[in-house]
Amino acid sequence: MSVTSSILHPPTFRFSLVSSTPSRSRILEFLTAHGVIKGQLIIEDISSAESHQFGTCVEGRPPVVLKVVSQDMWARILLSNDLGVSEAYMQGDFDVSSLKAMFDLWLDNRHALSNLSSTFSFIFALFSAVAIKALGRQNLTMARWNAEVAYDTSNDFFKCFLSKEMMYSCAIWGEEENGVRGDLTIGPTPGDLESAQHRKIHHLLKKARARAGDRLLEIGSGWGALAIEAARLGCTVDTVTLSVEQKAMTEERAAAAGFSDCIRVHLCDYRKLPESFKGQFDAFVSSEMFEAVGPKHHGEYFSMMDWALKEDRAAAVITATTQAESRYTDYQPDDFARHYHWPNCHLPSATSFAVAVQAAVPGRFVLESIEDHGIHYPRTLREWGRRLEKNFNSKVVEHMKERFPQLCDEKNLEAFRRKWMYMFTYAEAGYAKAYTSLNCWTLARPVSYRSHHWRSCSMC
């Protein structure tokens, strides 16, 4: 399947197997008996002019008002739960007073609402989770397709919401941007996202101990921002991507910055690196790519890292979205994020990551530090959402229609826009409620770890 044919990922067919009337009755009965303990949900059905209230309004927190536009909504939600809600929203089956408030309500009541599903939905979720783990869907062909879906939509589209250097990963907010809630307390200021992303890039390079004369290996190029900053420090960079669009733009931007001679972009899988890479690198950085590896291939990933790094004075910095330890499992079923944005991705926990390193390359690295950057993601996502709303204009729309003819259908175009706005808000709520987080692990060769800390202590 090409990225062109998967731009919308047609909704799952399952909802058509069940009539909307019994689905509606079952959902309303469930919500009455078990659903909303914290907060209030009001469902207004336009077709019947009926209104249903669940829960009690919390002071300072308006009720979530959901208006049913299409009766298809009921069956989608009953049969697919999380995925069904996202598809119903994308297809315009309902409107809601606030997407963020809806997600907050769901997370606050998730233990009850997670039981709102049919036997069919449970079986499908279990099957998809087992299949993802057992089949190891991140083989070379699937990994390439996953990268196309996630990153080859269009460079012009990503420019709509990313900062100028085009980092599609969490920023790190400082006092200069008024912190992680500065956009809410003071208001967003032009250039804030760029400053925060610049801080993040240099934080990762500092953790990797990158310095002039070093050779750095980056797995997951993005659009070249980290590679270019590393080159400014005097490093030689080999950066690896599976995205044709990202490779082209990274090379273009490296040339424009005058770093063509010291940045090499490789269009290949991390499992197919050139033999000449063995033991040649001083530093290794991978920003929010590890989720695409999958537990079946963690050993290959860490073995590659060990193989590429020098035996002395070498460090690796890896960031990834993580699940809480209490919820972590190798079996992770299809959901909105995996189905529509990052196919087959797998979220580690902070501990499962460390265990996987030790299992793959025992004694080869010291876990120098684990940082939690999750608090920085909600504002990053809000900034992306604001920029997309502002910049998804006629020029970009015409470009997208030309590239993806199915978007000439206004309903498809609106579903595409809603898909992205839904994702930003969906993820924001998850990070804000600590349902998910973002960790940064720093690994170092044992001798490098000791010498680094001795130098640090001698400077105290």
Structure description:
This protein has 460 residues and is of the alpha/beta class. Helix 2 (72-90) packs across helix 17. The longest helix has 23 residues, at 410-432. It folds into two domains: 1-135, 2-Layer Sandwich (Nonspecific Lipid-transfer Protein, Chain A); 141-377 and 434-458, Rossmann fold, CATH 3.40.50. The protein has 18 helices and eleven strands. Keywords: Lipid metabolism, Methyltransferase, S-adenosyl-L-methionine, Transferase. InterPro entries: CFA/CMAS, CMAS, SAM-dependent_MTases_sf.
Helix/sheet category: alpha/beta
Uncertain segments are 1-5, 118-136, 454-460
CATH superfamily of the largest domain: Vaccinia Virus protein VP39
Order of SSEs: HEEEHEHHHHHHHEHEHEEHEHHEHHHEH
Number of domains: 2
Please give the order of strands in the largest beta sheet.
7-6-5-8-9-11-10
Q: What number is the mean pLDDT?
A: 87
Instruction: Label the overall shape.
Output: globular
Content of β-strand: 5-15%
In this structure, how is the largest beta sheet organized? 7 strands, mixed
- State the CATH topology of the largest domain: Rossmann fold
Radius of gyration (Å): 23 Å
InterPro entries: CFA/CMAS (IPR050723), CMAS (IPR003333), SAM-dependent_MTases_sf (IPR029063)
Family: Belongs to the CFA/CMAS family.
Keywords: Lipid metabolism, Methyltransferase, S-adenosyl-L-methionine, Transferase
Organism: Serpula lacrymans var. lacrymans (strain S7.9)
